[in-house]
């Protein structure tokens, strides 16, 4: 049986960055990926872009995006709940990551149109996340990395300050290996609905899981039970409002709806409950999952009219449509009188719309309305009218493994000599709450490379 220097648990972006870096440093590496080959890559195959600091144009990125501006964007969405040293490490290192990604097979394309407003801050992958994942697997194979698919890790044996054994099941039988070093890059626990329910309460049963069904937190739970330091809260997560018709698992990024800034959003009682125009969508889309989760039956409804239909990226499921608000209410099972009253009240609160600008904060706001709409507030008057249902779509959970600047894990007695973590399983170190578009891929790339470097140095 092959003797491995490093075992990497997980098969997404962070795992692959670690594997390539370690292999280039001379280590013999195996990736243990729980998913079958067609579903390899974890949540990374659903991604589109990477948020990147840069001084001046870089690859597909225009202008510049400074460390301080990037950090301010992060502080805004997390409300300051972040480890600033680790956050700045991720931000600063992101600039060198983009050319590294290109040298390892990733190709970039101009940003997508729509409401994302990311041409300056985020580099988009040609072929999306699946293109990135496939490119990395090809590069890893050339570097001699072995990959086992449908290899579900069940236990890491922690003795004193070292991992001595990795247990996993593969092809119907149980196996154990004893690598010199281990990197955990196996994501959060969001696909375990029972664990989500323990954290959130019964409402979590109504949540949809945007990403892979294979991120069930088995290794995370195993390590936490053995006293490995944790970070983050079990009920904090990257949760967005997605199309209510999305599948329970693995709907991916295409189920996200980008129409909220140009809409009003109501609950099942046809009441508005939050400012739809608070900020540009990349800085606010990740709060809407939690907002919808707090509504009756964990559901919301988007209402727009004909003049807004082409302002956002098309949805994967067509919207419900009617020539009248009453007809739309009937199709959405909303109380028609109440919806009509809510829309009329909103329309009356709208003022001068001549400054409307769909891709930047335009100050076109309501007056005397609670909750207000502070940007893009135009009356909903032009038929046909369109509607979508919204459900909470969980991308990944923030309870994870605490790491230091070397991506190393620890217990009460100090660092674990041969255990590192990267990606979503340690992202709670930096994301205490909220989310910034493309930042998960930044964390995975930066800390994957660090973990690969450190594990290879230890193994060698």
From TrEMBL:
Keyword tRNA processing: no
Gene Ontology molecular function terms on file: oxidoreductase activity
Pfam assignment, any one: FAD_binding_2
Domain of life: Bacteria
Entry keyword set: FAD, Flavoprotein, Oxidoreductase
The FAD-dependent oxidoreductase 2 FAD-binding domain, residue ranges: 5-432
Keyword Flavoprotein among UniProt keywords: yes
Cofactor: FAD
InterPro entries xref list: CobZ (IPR012831), FAD-dep_OxRdtase_2_FAD-bd (IPR003953), FAD-oxidoreductase_2 (IPR050315), FAD/NAD-bd_sf (IPR036188), Succ_DH/fumarate_Rdtase_cat_sf (IPR027477)
PANTHER family the UniProt entry points to: FAD-DEPENDENT OXIDOREDUCTASE 2 FAD BINDING DOMAIN-CONTAINING PROTEIN (PTHR43400:SF7), FUMARATE REDUCTASE (PTHR43400)
NCBIfam families: CobZ_N-term (TIGR02485), PRK08274.1 (NF006130)
Name of protein: Tricarballylate dehydrogenase
Top-level taxonomy: Bacteria, Pseudomonadati, Pseudomonadota, Alphaproteobacteria, Rhodobacterales
